[in-house]
Design brief:
about 200 residues, about 0% strand, elongated, mainly alpha
């Protein structure tokens, strides 16, 4: 059986993980997902490492900081949101498509306590690992926003940056009022009234 050598890899391609490193990586991701769901994104990294059966040094080798771990945990949701934006890109009613996508963003940001706040801070920090989530979301949202603006249904002075901050603020407000499940939709409806051309 042929074995891969350094010369076989494309320049700049990451080295494949050893089997034990891959298992550690997957266990850390699974425990992080569970800890973030249970305790929010401020969950103890030491606890995550312990629950995964590894030392904190192993966690930091895979994820140099909390945002890098959060970015890895949220990749599946990010792909779903990007796929949804592509599905909505050809919708007959561009404003409705934009609203539906913003609602999906609010829902996603509200899945883990602390995520909305982290996404808001990462939107202005391109060095944050979470910008790997926020940048593609902004690009996807921009396309939907431009379509709605070109259709004349959304004001021309509305920016995707403002919309992303508003959706994260709505998710943050909902996080503070867990006993009012209708709050995000009410706040989003109020916000959208101000977007109309």
């Amino acid at each position: 059986m042929a074995t891969s050598t350094a010369a076989d890899r494309a320049p700049g391609a990451p080295r494949p993980m050893r089997a034990d490193a891959r298992r550690n990586y997957e266990r850390l991701l699974g425990e992080a997902r569970a800890a973030f769901a249970e305790h929010g994104t401020d969950a103890s990294l030491e606890d995550i490492a312990r629950r995964a059966g590894v030392g904190i040094g192993t966690l930091y080798r895979h994820f140099p900081n909390r945002h890098a771990l959060m970015n890895a945990v949220f990749q599946e949701a990010l792909h779903a949101l990007l796929e949804r934006s592509r599905d909505l890109a050809g919708a007959e009613q561009p404003c409705t498509a934009l609203v539906e996508w913003l609602r999906a963003i609010v829902t996603h940001a509200g899945e883990y306590r602390g995520l909305a706040r982290a996404l808001m801070s990462a939107s202005h920090d391109t060095s944050s690992a979470l910008s790997q989530c926020s940048t593609p979301l902004r690009t996807a949202g921009e396309r939907l926003l431009v379509r709605a603006q070109e259709a004349g249904t959304v004001r021309a002075d509305v920016s995707i940056g403002d919309l992303m901050q508003l959706t994260n603020a709505i998710a943050l407000a909902a996080e503070q009022s867990p006993y009012d499940p209708e709050l995000p939709d009410r706040l989003l409806t109020l916000t959208l009234r101000g977007l109309k051309a």
